[in-house]
Structure formats: structure tokens, C-alpha cells
Write a structure and sequence with these properties.
It is a single chain. With about 160 residues, the protein is mainly alpha-helical. The protein is built from four helices and two strands, in the order H-E-H-H-E-H. A two-stranded antiparallel sheet has the order 1-2. Helix 2 packs antiparallel against helix 3 (about 100-145). It is rod-shaped.
């Protein structure tokens, strides 16, 4: 009877140890940033690092969307300025230089176009600064997040606000 009790206790202890080992041996589900196929490299990101990477990725995506929209607007405006320039050239060729009123009207149009060009160049400079800032974000993401592994449970927790 004592042998039987010892065997039961030993079996119970072995099951507890095996159960604990099984829990400890569960494979972590991993994700990785920027990896299309295969696995990321390096140590797993901590939850704080993962949170930072996710925020950085969201900023990059938002900036990319906004930059695409701004680029399209600027290309459209540039094309309009070029068309206006061609129209002014044609008007200049056909301008009646003996009429002060016609000359004044042409000069007003040319001055208005020059002001639009100056404004466009200012926006182009601002756009270029945004592109440079986006390149900095991309470099930060590449250095700290890209191709890095993380625990998917951490990602789920972060998305839930934990």
C-alpha cells in the first residue's frame, strides 16, 4: 500500500513536472516587421519596442499617404503653370504693342503667374522637407524595427490597449 502511494505520488509529481515543462515549451507565435517570406532575425522585440515600432509604422504609412496626395496636387499645379506659360508666350507673340491697355493686361497676367510660381516654389520646398523627414522615419524604422521578430501575443495586447 505504501509502495502504491509512493508510486501515485511519484506519477503525480512527474505529471506536474511534465505539465510545467510543456507549458514552458510552448512555442511563441512570432511575427516580424518588413519580412515577406521567411523569418525575422535578432532577439524578440520587447513590448515597449514593439509599441514604438507599431507607432512608427503608422506614422510612416500616414506620411506616405499624405505625401502621395501632395505630390499629385503639386504635379497638377505644375502642369497648370506650364500651360499658363505657353498661353502667355502665345499672347506675347500676338500682342498689340501699340495698345497700352493690351500691354497692361498681359503684364498683369504675367505678374499673377510669377506670384503663383513663387508660391508653388515655397510649397515645393516645404514638400521636399517633408520628404526628408519621411526618409528619417524610414531610416529609424529600418534600423530599429525592420526584419525584427516580435511575440504576436504582445502585438494583440498592444492593439487592445494593454
Amino acid at each position: 500500500m505504501i509502495n502504491r502511494s509512493i508510486r501515485h505520488a511519484a506519477c503525480a509529481a512527474a505529471l506536474i513536472v511534465l505539465g510545467a515543462a510543456a507549458v514552458g515549451a510552448e512555442k511563441i507565435k512570432e511575427g516580424s516587421f518588413g519580412v515577406k517570406a521567411g523569418k525575422g532575425t535578432g532577439p524578440l522585440l520587447t513590448r515597449a519596442q514593439l509599441r514604438d515600432c507599431m507607432a512608427l509604422q503608422e506614422r510612416r504609412q500616414a506620411e506616405a499617404g499624405e505625401s502621395t496626395k501632395l505630390r499629385a496636387d503639386m504635379e497638377r499645379e505644375k502642369a497648370e503653370l506650364l500651360r499658363d506659360g505657353e498661353a502667355l508666350k502665345e499672347q506675347l507673340a500676338a500682342l498689340d504693342r501699340t495698345s497700352q491697355e493690351a500691354v497692361d493686361q498681359y503684364n498683369e497676367r504675367a505678374t499673377a503667374r510669377d506670384k503663383r510660381i513663387d508660391a508653388f516654389e515655397g510649397r515645393a520646398s516645404d514638400f521636399n522637407k517633408r520628404v526628408e523627414a519621411a526618409q528619417v522615419l524610414n531610416a529609424q524604422f529600418a534600423a530599429n524595427c525592420e526584419n525584427r521578430r516580435f511575440d504576436e501575443a504582445d502585438e494583440i495586447a498592444i492593439r487592445k490597449g494593454k
